[in-house]
Specification:
Blueprint lengths: L2 E5 L4 H12 L3 E6 L18 E5 L12 E4 L6 H4 L3 H22 L2 E7 L26 H21 L3 E6 L2 E2 L10 H10 L4 E4 L5 E3 L1 E2 H12 L9 E3 L4 E3 H12 L5 E4 L14 H7 L7 H15 L1
Parallel strand pairs: 1-2, 1-4, 2-3, 4-5, 5-6, 6-11, 7-10, 8-13
Antiparallel strand pairs: 9-12
The structure holds nicotinamide-adenine-dinucleotide.
Length: 310
């Protein structure tokens, strides 16, 4: 049994990760300031003897004793990370410094939840880990993209300078139960609009593509990455390679919910990438991992969740 710290553990991905770690027999400490996460996401875990929940903001130092750290704290959707962009950068950068400092003191392995957004609006498709990205450093998404890029820099400097055991995961679009209903992300948006019988809003002409990874698949990859030998640092892309246009996604949601909503089109937001697909060859070879959940199956679970919470 390991003592495992999950920052951002009350969020969408974090809550599934805590659940998985408990099932694997670990002692889990979940740290969250409830900025976008909530206790509701952890109702099934609160009260379990090997689960502990602590309200804390990672921009402040944390003194606890653990063997492994998963650093997930950071609002992930544009509506939330752009609401207070300075705090977003602080969470990524100061949060990384604080968690890396903690890992250094404890000689713990630390995993960073980085993002495909480090590739910005890429000139190459699909993106391999060796691609350096094309990020606008002064745009409205920069607080998140550059914050995450700086966190990666810090991880690799701690690795080179202090021999810290690091793992950097570049997560692509992930979806599933416990996504925030109002976070403006495409999967939750479409499902919520369909279930409320509202029109479904597409930005641009809906031909931009995304690939969507179901949360259980992603959590499996994070756990496998943490278990890799010390020389495996990443960055490693994690996502699903099945590429769909936003329009196809909207149509799947309509089909699975049985909603009669109309599709309506609005202008594309600034710096919105036109295509986003992971190259997961590295994850396949180093983790022996492959996403297994089909989009339709994952959407069914997610729709069932939103039916309950709405
Ligand atoms: N969901 C995705 O598709 C996706 C894609 C790429 C990367 N990621 C990364 O994965 C991680 C989790 O994302 P998510 O989708 O679960 O988002 P989320 O917003 O549901 O979870 C983030 C959690 O971090 C907490 N948090 C925010 N600021 C904090 C702070 N200063 N101190 C402590 N806790 C804080 C929030 O309250 C929330 O519980 C994030 O780091 C995100 O950048 C997610």
């Amino acid at each position: 049994m390991n003592k495992v710290l999950v920052t951002g553990g009350a969020g969408f991905i974090g809550s599934h990760l805590c659940e998985r770690l408990l099932k694997l027999g670990h002692d889990v400490l979940c740290v969250d300031n409830f900025y976008t996460g909530s206790k509701a996401n952890l109702l099934a875990l609160i009260g379990q003897p090997f689960f502990e929940l602590m309200r804390h903001d990672v921009t402040f130092p944390l003194y606890v004793e653990v063997d492994q750290i998963y650093n997930l704290a950071c609002p992930a959707s544009p509506v939330h990370y752009q609401f207070d962009p300075v705090q977003t950068t602080k969470t990524s950068v100061h949060g990384a410094i604080n968690m890396l400092g903690l890992a250094k003191r404890l000689k713990a392995t630390i995993l960073q939840a980085s993002t495909s957004e480090v590739y910005g609006d890429p000139e190459v498709h699909p993106q391999q880990e060796s691609y350096w990205g094309r990020v606008n450093p002064i745009g409205p998404r920069a607080c998140y993209d550059e914050g995450k890029r700086c966190a990666e820099t810090l991880f690799f400097d701690y690795y080179r300078q202090h021999n810290l055991r690091i793992k950097v995961a570049r997560i692509f679009n992930t979806y599933g139960p416990r996504m925030h209903p109002n976070d403006g992300r495409v999967v939750s948006n479409f499902i919520v609009q369909a279930l409320r019988g509202e029109d479904i809003t597409l930005y641009g002409d809906g031909s931009q593509t995304r690939s969507f990874c179901y949360v259980d698949d992603l959590v499996e990859a994070l756990v496998r990455l943490m278990a890799t030998p010390a020389e495996v640092t990443g960055p490693v892309n994690l996502g699903n390679t099945g590429e769909f246009t936003i329009r196809q996604l909207a149509e799947a949601v309509l089909r699975l919910t049985g909603a009669k909503s109309k599709l309506i089109f609005k202008p594309l937001p600034q710096d919105d990438p036109k295509q986003r697909q992971p190259d997961i060859a590295l994850a396949r070879s180093t983790l022996g991992w492959e996403p297994e959940v089909k989009l339709e199956d994952g959407l069914r679970e997610t729709i069932a969740y939103f039916r309950k919470v709405l």
